[in-house]
Amino acid sequence: MSLLVSTSFSSARRALSAPTLAMLPRIADSLSFLYLENVRVVQDDTGVCAQVAKTDGSADRVYLPVASLACVLLGTGTSATNPAMATMARHGTTVVWTGSGAVRMYSASQPSELTTDWLERQARAWADDTARLAIAVRMYEMRFGAGVPEGITLQQLRGLEGQRMKLMYQMLADKHRIRGFKRNYNPENWDQQNPVNQALSAANTALYGVVHAAILALGCSPALGFVHSGKQHAFVYDIADLYKAKHTIPMAFSLNKSGNPDREARRNLREDFRLYRLMPAIIHDIQRLLAPELDETGEETQNPELVHLWDPDLGPVDAGINHALDPGW
Amino acid sequence: MSNMVVISTTAVPDHVRGAISRWLTEPAPGLYVGTVSAKVRDKLWEAVSASVGEGAAVCIHPAENEQRYVIKTAGERRRRVVDFDGLQLIEFRAENGNVPL
């Protein structure tokens, strides 16, 4: 408020169109996700809105609070204009293009103004096999809440994980009296699938979107996974796996009699996100994974305008100045 | 526990405005704000929403959801609350001449 009072009208106007970092909610405080279908997302003179076309050629409009949204999932039948995408990028909103019901993730955008501190930590840990294995082990420990024997190999870990998941599916199927449940994911045959599978696929994609947004918000790479590898979203799958056993799988099973499983799954997931404050938990968990030694006093202040040059001996060196010693001309 | 509540009214009968002003303050025409208990707020909103006539009213108050508030409406206007998998956003309906602004 004082910001707007103390500045002139034109600079206040500029501040609103190009927000400063202080005006953007911290990713941990923002709304988790918004799924849109059959709309056109445009930037008009006041804001970003989703237009819902009507038969008579006119359109209803829904303005989107993009600055306070971590992630917008664009489903089937959607399109977005260039200015709308630019505005969302400026506000650090991750845009994920998904299939119908948010059950498939095609691609996601990355806001560019971010520190690379966490990306560098991730890349260092990923490139070193010992460090990478240690993080993979820590991920399994976080998932199952139990320590694993020292010196365990990844192969043994994978076996352990497979056993646990099988047991979990079996227990849940028994609990909900579902006979012969099989996890299957077949987008071509979507409507014929068991509601549990539909709910699970929808919930997982929404989870991927949120996790992806959290990863990008830290400036990490979604591609450098520790357990998964070889996919542009390997790290997204790694992190999302931490929450499936608690947030998506049991919930999906509870929807086995639902008439609209994917929609209900997303609704329940939002309740979950709210109740457990999952967004800040994801950020915190990624930081804890990549830098367990860091004091847990919270996020450090980020300055996206800072650009350094790298020096192996001196550490970060100021950029934007001429480093020539004595040009001699 | 008392919580803040905001009620906005458009073209409601005069007696409704007078009634609301006994609980809430009116910093701008038709806009009311105050701090009352959940019970009082619900009773007040029940009474207001039942007597908007040709007008419209909106009530916003804190809630334990992701947005931290809920929006309730009474009466027809171009703006309508739409639920997006648990997120309340506002749909601004295309002009068709029938619905007042």
From TrEMBL, chain A:
Binding annotation for Mn(2+): E161, H228, D241
Family the UniProt entry places it in: Belongs to the CRISPR-associated endonuclease Cas1 family.
EC number in record: 3.1.-.-
Gene3D superfamilies in the record: CRISPR-associated endonuclease Cas1, C-terminal domain, CRISPR-associated endonuclease Cas1, N-terminal domain
InterPro entries: Cas1, Cas1_I-E, CRISPR-assoc_Cas1, CRISPR-assoc_Cas1_C, CRISPR-assoc_Cas1_ECOLI, CRISPR-assoc_Cas1_N
Function description: CRISPR (clustered regularly interspaced short palindromic repeat), is an adaptive immune system that provides protection against mobile genetic elements (viruses, transposable elements and conjugative plasmids). CRISPR clusters contain spacers, sequences complementary to antecedent mobile elements, and target invading nucleic acids. CRISPR clusters are transcribed and processed into CRISPR RNA (crRNA). Acts as a dsDNA endonuclease. Involved in the integration of spacer DNA into the CRISPR cassette.
Single GO MF annotation: hydrolase activity
Protein name (database record): CRISPR-associated endonuclease Cas1
Cofactor requirement: Mg(2+); Mn(2+)
Subunit text: Homodimer, forms a heterotetramer with a Cas2 homodimer.
Domain of life: Bacteria
Any GO BP: defense response to virus
Keywords, sorted A to Z: Antiviral defense, DNA-binding, Endonuclease, Hydrolase, Magnesium, Manganese, Metal-binding, Nuclease
Automatic annotation (TrEMBL), chain B:
InterPro entries: CRISPR-assoc_prot_Cas2_sub (IPR010152)
Gene3D superfamilies on file: 3.30.70.240
Name the record gives this protein: CRISPR-associated protein Cas2
Provenance organism: Spinactinospora alkalitolerans
